[in-house]
Amino acid sequence: KLISNTKRPVLKNLDELPDPAWDLVDTSGYEEIWRNGRGFFSLNIATTRGCPFKCNWCAKPIYGNRYNSRSPRRVAQEMAMLMQEKGAEYFWVCDDIFGLKPGWVQEFQKEIDKLGIQPRYKIQSRADLLLEADNIDALAKSGLDEVWIGAESGSQAILDAMDKGTQVEQIYEATRLLKARGVRVGFFLQFGYLGETKEDIKKTINMVRELEHDDIGISGASPLPGTKLFH
Hints:
Elements: H1 28-38, E1 42-45, E2 48-49, E3 68-69, H2 72-85, E4 90-93, H3 104-115, E5 120-125, H4 133-141, E6 144-152, H5 156-161, H6 168-180, E7 184-191, H7 198-211, E8 215-220
Parallel strand pairs: 1-4, 4-5, 5-6, 6-7, 7-8
Antiparallel strand pairs: 2-3
Helix pairs in contact: 2-3, 3-4
């Protein structure tokens, strides 16, 4: 007969998980491609689960609005291991939001210094989380090379319709602070959200031109099942 189990409890202490089984992965082929194409070797790592923000077009089928993170020490140790054993020099930290907890990035920078490593890495974040000079300084000192900001639009009306919770002015200020510290900035942009007008699109294009970002990712608004946008 069909048995439906209760939902598993959400794991809050991610340090309870064992280290990823990197010894089972042959990374040599990936390293060859990276070095031939970019001149360095990059690997992906994850430091968190979930995102506490509520953008109404974003699908969160696994971890929902909960946010739990590994400790700065465990993340720094994994980076050190991958640099020493796999030859990695660069990391794409594939979390939705990196270093959200207060004091996390400062502690991470200290752990990187203790281990005596010099990784370079890129992250994803939000403009409103990149306005504290102390946070950006700690990120830059620990090896942050590039930040991808979920900018989405240069129109405040569209950001509000998305329940994004950010201000256009914050995108400008975060970009200025990051570039002043030598950190590259990429924008995720979304076109075609419900109610978007040519005037809204013009504001986004103007923002892109004015801020002179380093990279860009463009998508069309997609009504993913289960989201407010879909309904």
